Amino acid sequence: MFLMIVLALVAGSAAVARNRMIRIEYFADNGPEWRQRMLARFGSLMVFVLFAIVAVLSARVTWDDFRFGETSPGIGVPQWWYSVWLPVMSVAIAGRALGLFIRRGRRA
Fold it and tell me: Which of 2, 25, 35, 56 is at a distance of 20 to 30 A from 72, taking alpha carbons?
């Protein structure tokens, strides 16, 4: 189960890097060029903010798992082995979104 979540986060990171994020095409692709650029930058900035928040909060959860010695109920391994990937991948997605925001700013 946890590998499916990691795979989804890796795919999300690739989608952000390739500008294939979910958006409403009617608003994103219609209207003047300046509005399209502004909405594109706003979207990538919001993705950055979202995943930065997820990274911080999930890092706190991972730290608690490590500090309190939580183990998985199924096989008894440390829980942080699983939970550490959420902040790591969230930082990767946030970094890619920030890069996309910067690249879009240079084109303006």
Answer: 56
